[in-house]
Specification:
This protein is of the alpha/beta class and 318 residues long. The chain is built from twelve helices and nine strands. Helix content is 35%, strand content 17%. It has a nine-stranded mixed β-sheet, sandwiched between helices. α1 links the parallel β1 and β2. α1 crosses α12. The radius of gyration is 18 Å and the shape is globular. The mean pLDDT is 95. Bound molecules: alpha-D-ribofuranose (RIB) and calcium ion. The site of calcium ion has 9 residues, from loops.
Length: 318
């Protein structure tokens, strides 16, 4: 029988909101998840890998391979975001070590191989610094033939950055990588802070999840507690606002789930790689240089519909 699910690679730095996103993808049953490719990001590569394996174990999906990728950005020292995710990247949840092990091979090589072997072009959901995807583009400059789009949680256009004045974490963590991907010829869907800031997860949004006793719902509720405790406090990345928390990667995953929830615009986009604005996503809304648009910029979203669907899928999908 024909498999109508979308072939998908998730490039990730798990991460509280990475976990909430990956569980959603798995719960939906709509995607043929070919691999989790792990990058440096919220915490170091080793920790992120352990977390990827932990969450697949909780979801009962040992069949999905986890490939380790870049330990550091292409040109810069590594940065991280423990302040937003805890020292273990999972909200200091002290979960047991996974039994699963990473699969053989570098994430960038596997991205190329998986994309080429797929009967249909693969989608890449990139919810961490995008080093692995950039390395894959360098390994195979023709990757655009095999990848239909990269949905990227990154960028800040009409809103402030969450790591510098103008940059979001996933871009400033490796601006050169982001620019390589933006110029690769693969259409980039930029679901950045302009969208994430429209997503407010309130404590009541987790009520339904708390009523369902499964390894996944327990996993999420435990991690989310870490964020909920930060509400009203001083969190440098605005992960905890006065009455709600951010789960930024869930916003990007919402686009994968249903683009109809979004308002978008095709524009020419670059990533600044120099000076104190490094990591800024520069979108040329007037197309001053008369170039082919390469970025589908998401500017608006029905976040209530997305959060409702997220909660429903997680409550019913496992
Ligand atoms: O914004 C910091 C980090 O939190 C990013 O990796 C983002 O994807 C989220 O996980
Ligand atoms: Ca992430």
């Amino acid at each position: 029988m024909e498999d109508n699910r979308t072939p998908l690679i998730i490039d990730t730095d798990p991460g509280i909101d990475d976990a909430a996103s990956i569980f959603w993808v798995l719960a939906s049953g709509r995607f043929d998840v070919k691999a989790l490719t792990v990058t440096h990001g919220n915490v170091g590569l080793e920790r992120c890998t352990i977390n990827a394996l932990r969450l697949l174990e909780a979801a009962g999906r040992p069949d999905i391979p986890v490939y380790q990728g870049a330990k550091a950005p292409i040109l810069r020292p590594r940065i991280s975001a423990e302040f937003a995710h805890g020292t273990d990247g999972m909200g200091d949840s002290e979960m047991p070590m996974p039994q699963l092990k990473p699969a053989e091979g570098h994430a960038a090589c596997r991205i190329v191989e998986i994309a080429k072997a797929s009967a249909r072009p693969v989608t890449i959901l990139a919810i961490g610094p995008i080093t692995n995807v950039a390395l894959a583009v360098l390994l195979e400059p023709d990757l655009k033939r095999y990848v239909d789009r990269v949905i990227f949680m990154g960028g800040a256009v009409r809103v402030p950055g969450n790591f510098t004045a103008v940059a979001s974490f996933n871009v400033v963590a490796d601006p050169e990588a982001a620019q390589i991907v933006y110029q690769s010829g693969i259409p980039v869907v930029q679901v950045g802070l302009d969208i994430c800031n429209q997503f407010s997860f309130r404590p009541a949004d987790f009520d339904a999840l708390q009523q369902v006793d499964s390894p996944v719902t327990r996993f999420i509720c435990q991690m989310v507690q870490f964020r909920l405790r930060q509400i009203g406090g001083v969190a440098a990345e605005s992960v905890a606002r006065s009455d709600s928390i951010a789960l930024n990667d869930v916003a990007a995953t919402s686009y994968l789930m249903n683009p109809d929830w979004f308002t978008t615009e095709m524009v020419v986009g670059d990533v600044e790689t120099a000076g104190r604005c490094a990591g800024q996503t520069v979108l040329d809304f007037a197309n001053r240089e008369n170039r082919e648009p390469n970025v589908c910029f998401a500017s608006g979203v029905d976040s209530h519909a997305a959060i409702r669907q997220w909660s429903w899928d997680l409550c019913h999908g496992f």
